[in-house]
Design a protein that fits this description.
2 copies of one chain form a homodimer. Chain A is α/β, with parallel strands linked by helices. In chain A, the strands form 3 sheets. In chain A, strands 3, 4, 5, 6, 7, 14 and 15 form a 7-stranded mixed sheet that branches. Strand 13 of chain A pairs antiparallel with strand 13 of chain B, so a sheet runs across the interface.
């Protein structure tokens, strides 16, 4: 067993766009679990856009990471030593273990996972929080129905890729928005979107005109992951009584993309009598059993596709995270911290 | 009987802020009702912020008024001659008779009113569309509950003044925002708001700080009539899972007031998991019986107060409307077109 561990600490708060200087790789003594605690080695770390919010001191739905503290993050880990009967050495678990090689935990908020049921990493992606986010947003928040038309921004991301597939399985017309020809090809060929619009592509038509052509009967549901240009483009296309499930606004997390004026947003909501609902998956964990019952068999059978972008080693986590914020990932962004089998 | 009638036509579409030049007073021959129609003389004309939208050609929830056509508007009228058994000479009616001294109608969308049950003008205000708007917005759209805190912008307007009183009757903490010391004094002394914040007053605290002090447990419901500064001020004060009933945005109808950036609006909805619902009263006429059953007795008993600003004569309608857009009205804005008794 190693006698040290490594972690990524928040070195400083970003002003605007974060950079490598905001992170610091540190080596620390390996902690010893206290009574009722276990020590685990991290196998997979999940990188997610919400982490950008935790880097800032501004009011958010969760406390910010303190400067000097370990960056937070969900991870799959394997128990090494345990002082609690609930977890045994060798158990695979998923929980908020942070950007680190090892973690000590009381087991609060930690679930055991079966390493044979599906690849371990799916517990962080299609069968984890991003998957639950997609399923709750589509069903509980947007109230999406068969025969309706949905637009999904960040259509090939960890959340979007499942939204599109679940919507299609429901019998909806599915229009994805993604950045890049490769992502759009994947969206239609693999994920089954009816149309994918590449907002990076040169086109004589505006993105809003492209949506209008792709959605001849208008847009009933917009699954919002980005803000920015996709939002501006879809708003005039929303049908009366349309719904917007507001899940993320990655285009704006670092203030790097333009925005429609607030009166245009507010005016569309009013004139088209839209319902806009912000949601955070932490409020909806009670829906996890229903989600897994429906989606796990589809993942196992191969009916639901997913893709992962893997960075190798904890030291690569900051660069992979910064790339994620710029749309450099393709599907779920992971960091392989250690091999699955010790 | 006069052989001519007068009307206000839309002379031109405004660019930005409308002015008197956009309206034209015209004299026309008095029309003759055809088979199944009646002719009525207008008694009271209602002026409402939504009319600003009808003056523009931009997409809205209703067709714009054509240039040269009569300005639309709800009115109380008295039937003069009738070719339909549904309406008899002498009947008082409420319907969309427009900015005119007389109107011919098939009776579609027209209701008879009892001139002895309540003052005729209340059919355009506290017991008419503004009242129904307040009641539907508070109950059906915002799902407001006893013990919660509500902020109402344009708190003494035709809609807001009833929202505040209904919310107070429900057992909510009520905070109004209005422009001017006289309106705020009326809001607390007559309408029963717990607090009224005057956004015209000089104050060392920002409006948002004033809301924070007035709402020590945060804001659960925001009844949005204005957009602009009140929206910007209330957003950071909204509680998790708060609701915004988006009824109007008068501050922005002519583009005259600043706005928070869209990412700030979107970010608050996401972080605080707000539900924002735009609504237009035309979708909710089926709730009118339940509304009247609850509110008419309260108006009759004097438990619900209301105030009217009356302009005298059709020729004053444009000036009164322009004043309404600037917040110059105090309560429901009406134009007295003719005496109630012919």
């Amino acid at each position: 067993m190693t006698q040290t561990m490594t972690r990524i600490a928040l070195a400083s708060r970003p002003e605007g766009k974060p950079g490598p200087e905001n992170f610091r790789l540190e080596t620390l003594p390996l902690p010893t679990p206290g009574p009722g605690e276990f020590l685990a080695r991290v196998v997979w770390l999940s990188l997610d856009p919400y982490m950008r919010g935790r880097m800032s001191a501004a009011k958010s739905y969760a406390k910010p990471v303190e400067v000097g503290a370990t960056m937070e993050g969900g991870a799959v880990a394997q128990v090494i030593t345990s002082n609690t009967p609930a977890f045994a050495p060798g158990d695979y678990v998923v929980g908020n273990f942070g950007w680190a090689s090892h973690a000590v935990s009381t087991g609060e908020g930690v679930q055991k996972i079966d390493p044979d049921a599906a690849p371990l990493s799916t517990a962080l992606g299609v069968l984890g929080m991003p998957g639950l986010t997609a399923w709750v947003g589509l069903n509980d928040i947007a109230g999406a129905k068969s025969g309706e038309t949905i637009v999904v921004s960040a259509a090939t991301g960890a959340v979007g890729s499942l939204v599109g597939q679940l919507a299609r399985a429901k019998g909806m017309r599915t229009i994805g928005i993604a950045g890049g020809a490769d992502k759009c090809a994947y969206a239609t060929a693999e994920l089954g979107y009816d149309v994918c619009l590449d907002h990076h592509a040169a086109d004589t038509r505006t993105l809003s005109q492209q949506i209008a052509e792709a959605a001849p009967t208008g847009v009933d549901v917009y699954f919002e992951n980005t803000g920015g240009k996709p939002l501006e483009a879809v708003l005039p296309r929303m049908n009366t009584h349309g719904r917007i499930a507001l899940c993320g606004m990655i285009a704006w997390y670092s203030g790097i993309e333009g925005a429609p004026p607030a009166p245009a947003v507010w005016g569309a909501i009013l004139r088209q009598r839209l319902r806009v609902q912000g949601f955070i998956i932490f409020d909806h964990f009670n829906r996890a059993p229903a989600f897994r019952a429906e989606v796990a068999p589809l993942v196992k059978s191969g009916a639901i596709r997913y893709r992962e972008t893997v960075a190798e080693g904890l030291a690569q986590a900051p660069a992979a995270f910064l790339s994620l914020l710029e749309g450099g990932n393709f599907g779920k962004q992971l960091v392989r911290i250690a091999p699955a089998r010790a």
